[in-house]
Amino acid sequence: MENKNINRRGFLNILGAGALAVAVSGCDAKSKKGNAPGSIASGEKKSGDMTYRVNPNTGDKVSILGFGCMRLPTLHTDAPDGNNIDQDAVNRQVDYALEHGVNYFDTSPAYCKGFSEHAMGIALSRHPRDSYFIATKLSNFSPDTWSRKNSMAMYENSFKQLQVDYIDYLLLHGIGMGGMENFNGRYVDNGMLDFLVKEKEAGKIRNLGFSYHGDVEVFDNMLKMQDEGKINWDFVQIQLNYIDWRHAKEVNPRNTDAEYLYGELEKRGIPAVIMEPLLGGRLAQVNEHLTGKYKALRPDDSVASWAFRFAGTPKGVLTVLSGMTYMEHLQDNLHTYSPLEPCTPSELALLESAAQEILHFPTVPCTDCKYCMPCPYGLDIPAIFSHYNKCINEGNVKEDAQDPEYRAARKAFLVGYDRSVPKLRQANHCIGCGRCRSHCPQGIDIPARMASIDNYVESLKRNRG
Questions:
Q1: Residue 40 CA to chain centroid, in angstroms?
Q2: Which is nearest to 462 in space by CA: 393, 418, 416, 399?
Q3: Distance between first and last Cα of the chain
Q4: CA nearest 101: which of 45, 168, 19, 31?
Q5: How far is CA 23 from CA 52, 249, 283, 341, in A?
Q6: How far is CA 257 from each of CA 260, 268, 315, 437, rounded to the nearest angstrom?
Q7: Is 156 exposed, middle or buried (0-12, 13-18, 19+ CB in 10 A)?
Q8: DSSP string computed for 183-224
Q9: Degrees (nearest 5) of the Cα angle 25, 26, 32?
Q10: CB burial of residue 280 (10 Å; 0-12, 13-18, 19+)
Q11: Cα separation of 118 and 122, whole Å?
Q12: How far is CA 172 from CA 135, 144, 169, 344, 373, in A?
């Protein structure tokens, strides 16, 4: 792969390294209005104090750590209605998050098989309404939900499930997937965008924005609407991490570099909400060589914390979303952001070098969003990719049977595969129907990847080394 030289001055200026990170640090997590934004110098420690960013449009003082509700804790068995969310665990995590300064919660009608909003409504309604910000989405992805009637029903149901009479942050979900035709069908032709603008004027929506995936022409057109005075976007949600910052197209040609996306938002003063800071978990488990470099500099910090610090460093970032299935994920992220220590210039250079190194490893760019699920033939697509990626990062993918480590790697891969993915849900059951392709925001050719992984598994079974 061609080695890309980093433009250090531009890179560091845009990220706002060190003292350029606009933030408010304090323990008043329940206040929606912040004081004038302050500055946190790199290295300053105030243990236990969450870092906040101020939304310039509303004055909201938002925790830099946002609670993503796509991957809530689950029970082992489903209820009759299909809801397997562990509500008690969700309640405990929400209570702990609020107690430690987290006040931004991001959900959607599409998350957790449609039950995420309901679970968050139960958990959050136990707390004062002004102690948290709730973000949800108009997730009318399929054409049968594009009609005004169905889109309205989805919108109104969000209020019911969340048990609120206003929504703090409402997003048009997945803008860019399917191009402008898709956007117009979902939000323009049915009058929903005009309706949502009126809802904002009436106070039912406090901030109106969109989440972006895919087609950069659509992203540019959305910002053009603001430039022409047709609408004001109060915030925009983008995918940003230290690989996608400058190498998004190397992961997937359909993707857009976060450097460009963030830069366009910063020019217009539009706050950025960050999704996929770990790139679907890939940046929480990097190869041992990079892990050693990270630990040498910050021995007490997790590998994941490097990605979270990177995502929070740009001064125009309002909050960084993390899907925290387990309490230890929440606790680790609280450690990272209480307070945030923005990445130093030398750390940013290290992460750029790490991004280039990671791209040499043939991992699958799956973010575990589960939009490809359910598979009509029963495959657990995200789990298959997760195990394969984990084995690559741990060095347990070996093709040369003469390699002295082949037998140990072979055993680790096959045993781990059977433990993490039930046999009836493994890659060999893929028939290549392709129904999953159009649902993947990362543009992964899922059937081709399944065939490749299955071929590798079969080769391991044949060749014991």
A1: 25
A2: 399
A3: 31
A4: 31
A5: 5, 31, 25, 11
A6: 6, 18, 18, 22
A7: exposed
A8: HIIIIITTSHHHHHHHHHHTTSEEEEEEEE-S-HHHHHHHHH
A9: 100
A10: buried
A11: 6
A12: 11, 17, 10, 34, 21
Decide the pairing of beta strands 22-25 and 65-68: unpaired
Among 142, 87, 152, 93, smallest CA distance to 117 is for: 87
- Residue 359 and residue 1 in contact, taking contact as beta carbons nearer than 8 Å: yes
Cα dist. 208→75, 169, 322 in Å?
34, 6, 21
* 337 contacts 312 by C-beta, under 8 angstroms: yes
Residues 6 or more apart in contact with residue 409 via CB below 8 angstroms: 391, 395, 396, 397, 398, 403
Q: CA-based Rg of the chain, rounded to a whole angstrom? A: 22
Which run of H or E residues covers position 138?
A: strand 133-138
CB burial of 50-63 (b: ≥16 within 10 Å; e: otherwise) equals bbbbbbebbebbbb
What the block records as the tokens of 338 is 């209480």
Beta strands in 55-132 (DSSP E): 61-63, 65-68, 104-106
Q: Which amino acid is at 36?
A: A
Note whether 110 and 141 are within 8 A (CB): yes
Which secondary structure element, helix H or strand E, spans residue 290, and what is its range? Answer: helix 288-297
Spell out the residues 6+ positions from residue 2 whose beta carbon is closer than 8 angstroms to its own: none
Which amino acid belongs to residue 61? K
pTM of the model: 0.77
Tens digit of pLDDT per residue, the chain (465 long)?
333 344 444 544 555 543 333 344 443 333 343 332 223 333 333 446 999 999 998 999 999 999 999 999 999 877 788 899 999 999 999 999 999 999 999 999 999 999 999 999 999 999 999 999 999 999 998 888 899 999 999 999 999 999 999 999 999 999 988 889 999 999 999 999 999 999 999 999 999 999 998 789 999 999 999 999 999 999 999 999 999 999 998 877 888 999 999 999 999 999 999 999 999 888 998 887 889 999 999 999 999 999 999 999 999 999 999 999 999 999 999 999 999 999 999 999 999 999 998 887 667 878 788 889 999 999 999 999 989 888 877 777 877 788 888 888 889 999 999 999 999 999 999 999 999 988 887 778 899 989 989 988 888 888 886
